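Re: that chain you flagged

S.,

Sorry for the slow reply, it's been a week of failed gels. I finally had a moment to sit down with the sequence you sent. For the record, here it is as I used it:
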Amino acid sequence: MVPSTSERSLGDRNAWLALGVTTLVFFLSVIDISAVNVAFPSIRDDFGVSESTLGWVISGYNVTVASLLLVAGRYADSFGRKRLFIPGVATFMLGSTLSAIAPSVGFLIAARVIQGVGSAIIAPTAIAVVLPDFPPNKRSTIIGITGATGALGAVVGPALGAFLTDIWSWRGIFWINVPISVLVLVLAPRLLRESKNPAATGKIDLVGVPIGTVGVGLVMFAIVRSEEWGILDSRVLANAAVGLLLVWLLVRRSRGHSEPLLELDLFSLRSFASTNASLGLYSMAFTSGFLINSLLLQELWDQPLSVVGVALVPAPLLATIVSPIAGRYADKIGHRWILAGGSTLCGLPYLLYIVILDEEPTVWTHLVPTSLFVGVGVGLSIATWSSAGLSDVDPAQFGTANATIRTTQQIGYALGISVIVAILADVSSDPQASSFRWAWGFVGISYLAAAAMIALTFPRGNSESRTT
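Prediction finished late last night. Pasting the structure tokens below so you have them in one place:
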């Protein structure tokens, strides 16, 4: 029998059980993203649609998540993280079920949007709902465990997606979410404690919410569609311009509202502002770097899917091991040099790829061994970004702060993918090593720019030393 959660000490057994529940559903959402990518050809063949139409299975999900993160974080802090987290899991489960039974690609895209709504709620609340249950000197470790879970999901996702698609169908990728979501929905009400901003009045900015949601959504839409329409297409530029205008209006409105969608006072914290600026650069490299090497293996080196899956596993697997260790050290010595070192370790291998990789396949002698350095760098940095951004944030603002960080991350991911798609536009028809060298250069420089930014702007010491 699970004990009552009404009264418990910081970091006790129930707190760890609650962390297990929230990381489980976070693990699901990470698996889902990478597994769907592997299943793309199977989904395309089932529905007989074009690549551009099928692209909305991912794009619709990503735009939805990015658009709603700020709203979810704001509502979680104002009305309760547990109160929002549980419906978020239910929505994610509903979207997964509808995706699994989709009779057409249009139905699947709509189901993925529903799934995206659930993910947008889960992302800022999964950490925010449990962090108040742990003392400040343990919070980087907790976020590190979450990061390790995400890295493990990145490892499991492609392999699980390939396995389920092979023995069953792509629908199995979505069905697997359902029983685990049910388990979370059974346990969460008893294990999670409610927390929110005690100063919140519940008066959400009803004008700022649609302005911010539509603004971020249009910026994301422009970035995503630039992959097909071109970055200088008038439709891309128009959507981006309107989106940026709405974001600017949101910033102006947030300055004077008692409960703004975007809490600008967070940016007065040097650690929070530095993290968001540096994370934007890091995120442009992170997802696009894995995409480049996946395309390298399949398009330039013509490797079978089984080899692709195995070759991409070691780096994230190593990151899974390193991430909790990095979290513990960040609690003790601070985030600055861990992030700078991790970002540098991520960037240098991509610049080395330019020199050591060419048309001749060298999967196990060059690519995989070099990628292990990326794995260590990702382990040092991927979860440490979140703990760095939250290190000086008042617990009352955890939901909003985490949502802002996640929004920066999502926009960075989309920008990076768009740049890589433009660089490698002809890779399927005419793969050339020179194109990959430009792509590796972009990723390497982005990582090193993030390292320089965090080293120059992030405050010294850990959060405890900065408050004494």
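What I noticed first: Residues 9-197 form a domain with the Growth Hormone; Chain: A; fold (CATH 1.20.1250.20).

Talk soon,
D.
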